[in-house]
């Protein structure tokens, strides 16, 4: 009798415990990876808005010293870029949603048993992408990055000071975005910051130089 009670209340084998622990760790790692992908996309979207808006403002500033012209150009670029990002992300994610829904229908036909169908369908619906959410997130991320050069130039009237302040604010934001991207991707931070910073400087310098060249030629 005692042997039966011992067997009834005995602990599970060590292999089962290790397997369960490893499954829990895998689920946590999967959740972290899923979150990091969204955060990484948001950082990249903000970085895109930052560089695009700043380069556009630098290009206009190369031929127009007026603060209003520079601000209006940057604002137009921010709105246009955010709308473009939102529409592109909506179309892309909606296409992915259509593909996954079609795959769900094929799997539902092959599923055996009502309970099995309900479990699979419920789990699959939870992981489906949301086109509206993705579009809003892309537009918001782009707008956050684009607001940096706009706010930096908004209150400064002096042309040279305004250009330097915009360049400094954008450089600082590029370093921050580069560090965030490296932290989320578990990559070397210094190398990532330098890459993003040099890329942003090149974009602004090329836009400024080409616009200055075209403007000075009288076109």
Automatic annotation (TrEMBL):
Keywords: Ion transport, Iron, Iron transport, Membrane, Transmembrane, Transmembrane helix, Transport, Vacuole. InterPro entries: Ccc1_fam. It is a multi-pass membrane protein. One of its GO terms (molecular function) is iron ion transmembrane transporter activity. The chain crosses the membrane at residues 69-94, 134-156, 162-184, 196-215. It catalyses: Fe(2+)(in) = Fe(2+)(out). GO terms for cellular component: vacuolar membrane. It is found in: Vacuole membrane. Pfam families: VIT1. Belongs to the CCC1 family. Vacuolar Fe(2+) uptake transporter. This is Vacuolar iron transporter. It comes from Forsythia ovata.
């Amino acid at each position: 009798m005692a042997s039966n009670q011992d067997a009834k209340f005995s602990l599970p084998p060590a292999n089962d415990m290790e397997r369960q622990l490893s499954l829990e760790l895998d689920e946590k790692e999967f959740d972290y990876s899923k979150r990091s992908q969204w955060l990484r996309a948001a950082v990249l979207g903000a970085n895109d808005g930052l560089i695009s808006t700043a380069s556009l403002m630098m290009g206009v500033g190369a031929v127009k010293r007026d603060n209003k012209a520079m601000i209006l150009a940057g604002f137009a670029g921010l709105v246009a870029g955010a709308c473009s990002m939102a529409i592109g992300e909506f179309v892309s994610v909606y296409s992915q949603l259509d593909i996954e829904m079609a795959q769900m229908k094929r799997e539902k036909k092959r599923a055996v048993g009502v309970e099995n169908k309900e479990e699979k369908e419920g789990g699959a619906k939870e992981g489906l992408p949301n086109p509206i959410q993705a579009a809003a997130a892309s537009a918001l991320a782009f707008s956050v990055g684009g607001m940096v050069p706009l706010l930096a130039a908004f209150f400064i009237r002096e042309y040279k000071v305004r250009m330097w302040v915009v360049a400094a604010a954008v450089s600082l934001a590029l370093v921050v975005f580069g560090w965030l991207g490296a932290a989320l991707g578990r990559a070397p931070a210094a190398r990532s910051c330098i890459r993003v910073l040099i890329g942003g400087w090149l974009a602004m310098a090329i836009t400024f130089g080409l616009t200055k060249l075209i403007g000075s030629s009288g076109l």
